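FAQ

Q: What does a record look like?
A: Structure on top, sequence underneath. For example:
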């Protein structure tokens, strides 16, 4: 109480109120009201000081004990060993080394996987048979393997040659104005539409694997030819602009100076052996781009100096081994789980459906992670090494993404770079808002994902499209959560969306496909 009274008496507001009370005893009612208001303020100030005094008695933080008290305790003959500190698992401790818990999580995950594998083997037996996957390449009632899929893929060269000759005509100004845009748009539209027609009419001539490969190859070709056409258009525009500028200038000292600078730039380009437009318009250059592990065309790709034999052999071995592991996991783990979910989906037993979907989530996610490593690390690095392609930035640390938007920017860099370069930036240049450009990117991505699933399965739904479009509000929600609760919770949302989101939706599509066909021989069952 003495400390409290001293604190209150030393406070300037308290001194003002006391002096004000002493000096205003004989004044009017207006001054009395002011004094009453000041007294209320003094009461709240007194409560604040009381709370502050209570907090000063807390010993949960090390910095609340003064250095003088620490030295005084150490000078005592009892040899003290205690000092103010927090427990390690308290947020205020500042401890952040949890490698042991990470190892524990990996061990628990491994033991859980082994238990599920043993349960699967005891229940279904060993179902792994690599020879049964050959049935994917032929009709279930025929003995000859399909040759239609390779022929269809070879026919894609027609589009490549057409794009090559079209660029030559554009370089020679044989086609001008808006006709260029309409011709390119029609060509790219036909490129995507041909598999829809052919695979829809002559379905029996192509296996499921063949239809899937055709759609993937034609989608990649669509994105690459889009980039090839747009980059050459940029080069033509730059060349045309320089010609117009040079015509407007008179023969003056400034023009001579600019001409000297251009000659110097040309000399540097020649010394570096850089290809200039339209010298890049060759079939060799175009086919190198189509084979390279990138979707964005450039006139001069960065090249490596040599092929690293050991690195190449390791990546090729990974492609072979992981491919067989994926097929084995699909045979042993995914197919039985999908078959067991037929009755639950048919009866609309929601609890049973939820149990089946959750049971599919873990093996499906392990399959997806293995596929990611196989595709974006092993396979793309194999291609890059064989083609002397030096840019190996195929992915970033998406597993540390603090929100869903960061994940989409990091996990598939070839597609992300293409979308930013050929859709997002051009739309921003045309004065569209950032939100409109982002939504346009998601719409195109959702449409292509739906194309890759619906066309091979002949199930024309919009489930994958809607699943992709749900990512737009999920990006906003995860960003807000990360800003308010920290990156850890945002990263949990990313992993939850990966485990229970789009991969699970794709499994539902395949489940519906199996319900539709009801022919187990196609999978070698």
């Amino acid at each position: 109480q003495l400390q409290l009274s001293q604190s209150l008496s030393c406070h300037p507001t308290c001194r003002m109120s006391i002096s004000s009370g002493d000096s205003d005893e004989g004044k009017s009612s207006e001054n009395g009201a002011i004094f009453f208001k000041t007294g209320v303020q003094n009461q709240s100030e007194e409560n604040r000081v009381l709370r502050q005094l209570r907090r000063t008695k807390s010993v949960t933080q090390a910095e609340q004990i003064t250095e003088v008290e620490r030295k005084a305790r150490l000078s005592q003959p009892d040899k003290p060993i205690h000092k103010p500190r927090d427990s390690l698992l308290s947020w205020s401790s500042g401890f952040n080394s949890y490698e042991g818990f990470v190892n524990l999580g990996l061990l628990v995950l491994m033991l859980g996987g082994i238990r599920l594998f043993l349960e699967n083997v005891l229940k279904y037996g060993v179902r792994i048979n690599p020879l049964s996957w050959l049935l994917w390449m032929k009709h279930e009632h025929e003995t000859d393997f399909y040759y239609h899929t390779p022929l269809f893929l070879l026919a894609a060269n027609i589009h490549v040659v057409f794009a090559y000759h079209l660029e030559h005509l554009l370089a020679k100004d044989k086609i001008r104005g808006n006709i260029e845009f309409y011709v390119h748009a029609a060509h790219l539209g036909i490129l995507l539409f041909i598999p829809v027609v052919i695979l829809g009419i002559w379905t029996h001539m192509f296996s499921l694997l063949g239809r899937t490969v055709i759609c993937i190859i034609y989608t990649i070709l669509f994105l690459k030819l889009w980039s090839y056409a747009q980059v050459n258009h940029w080069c033509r525009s730059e060349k045309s602009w320089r010609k117009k500028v040079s015509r407007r200038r008179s023969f003056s000292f400034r023009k001579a100076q600019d001409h000297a600078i251009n000659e110097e730039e040309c000399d540097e380009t020649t010394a570096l052996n850089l290809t200039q437009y339209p010298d890049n318009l060759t079939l060799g250059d175009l086919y190198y781009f189509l084979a390279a592990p990138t979707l964005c065309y450039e006139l001069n790709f960065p090249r490596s100096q040599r092929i690293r034999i050991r690195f190449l052999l390791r990546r090729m071995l990974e492609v072979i081994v992981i491919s067989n592991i994926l097929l084995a996991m699909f045979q042993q783990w995914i197919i039985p789980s999908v078959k067991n979910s037929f009755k639950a989906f048919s009866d609309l037993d929601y609890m049973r459906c939820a149990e089946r979907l959750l049971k599919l989530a873990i093996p499906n996610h392990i399959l997806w992670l293995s596929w990611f490593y196989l595709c974006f690390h092993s396979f793309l690095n194999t291609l890059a090494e064989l083609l002397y392609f030096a840019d190996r930035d195929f992915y970033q640390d998406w597993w540390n993404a603090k929100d869903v938007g960061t994940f989409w920017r990091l996990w598939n860099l070839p597609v992300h770079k293409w979308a930013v370069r050929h859709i997002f930036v051009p739309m921003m240049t045309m004065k569209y808002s950032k939100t409109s450009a982002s939504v346009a990117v998601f719409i195109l991505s959702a449409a292509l994902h739906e194309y890759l699933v619906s066309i091979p399965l002949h199930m024309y739904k919009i489930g994958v499209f809607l699943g992709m479009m749900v990512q737009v509000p999920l990006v906003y929600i995860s960003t807000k959560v990360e800003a308010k609760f920290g990156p850890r919770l945002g990263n949990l949302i990313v992993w939850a969306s990966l485990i229970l989101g789009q991969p699970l939706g794709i499994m539902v599509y395949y489940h519906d496909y199996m319900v539709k066909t009801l022919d187990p021989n196609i999978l070698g069952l």
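Q: Is there anything notable about this one?
A: The two ends are 85 Å apart (CA to CA).
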